[in-house]
Design goal:
With about 190 residues, the protein is mostly beta strands. The protein contains 2 helices and 12 strands. Helices cover about 5% and strands about 45% of the residues.
């Protein structure tokens, strides 16, 4: 089954990427996966190259999928067909994206203003991918020690619908860079 996906996320996961976007025909969220095992379903780095170009957010790519393989609240998971190569269609602007997607308008960022969901909140979720328009997003990089190595931790804070959110994990590779520490964005779309 072929679908044209506007890529909206490309975040780090297990040495590869968690890649998701919107089906441009149905407007449904699609997460690309390589298996039905959440510990090995990430998209490998080499799968993010097409004709010598890196696949980026806002690229529309045509993929062939075997089937939908939902797991718990991740109902958007679709198994890639490894036998067929993806096809680059085009890149779009953020303005073009805004014309065809639904930006969430919920009262809270998910169900609360914490940095995690409670068990009863998770049971209410019918999907795991959302897009929100937030204000005053600030990127924060800090260090911690793990196995004798200094590592970086990336978090963000932002405002949404008159609530402030702290300590939210940041997984976007563009902003997971120590040089982005302290970056402020007055308006941002987050997934």
């Amino acid at each position: 089954m072929t679908k044209q996906i506007c890529i909206l996320t490309k975040s780090y996961k297990h040495g590869g990427y968690c890649v998701a976007g919107i089906d441009i025909n149905t407007k449904e969220w699609i997460r690309l996966v390589n298996s039905d095992n959440p510990n090995t379903d990430e998209i490998r780095k080499e799968q993010m190259f097409l004709n010598g170009k890196t696949i980026e957010c806002l690229d529309i790519i045509e993929y062939d999928f075997i089937k939908n393989i939902p797991t718990s609240c991740q109902t958007e998971n679709w198994l890639l067909n490894p036998a067929l190569k993806p096809k680059f269609i085009k890149s779009i602007s953020i303005e073009e994206l805004a014309n065809f997607i639904k930006i969430e308008k919920d009262d809270f960022f998910i169900f609360n203003n914490a940095n995690l969901l409670k068990a009863n909140e998770i049971s209410k979720i019918k999907r795991s991918l959302y897009i929100f328009h937030v204000q005053n997003l600030k990127i924060e990089a800090s260090t911690y020690e793990s196995y004798g190595e200094i590592r970086f931790r990336y978090k963000c804070t932002f405002d949404y619908k008159n609530s402030h959110y702290d300590n939210i994990s940041l997984t976007d590779p563009i902003y997971r860079d120590v040089t982005q520490d302290g970056t402020n964005l007055s308006n941002a779309l987050i997934v």
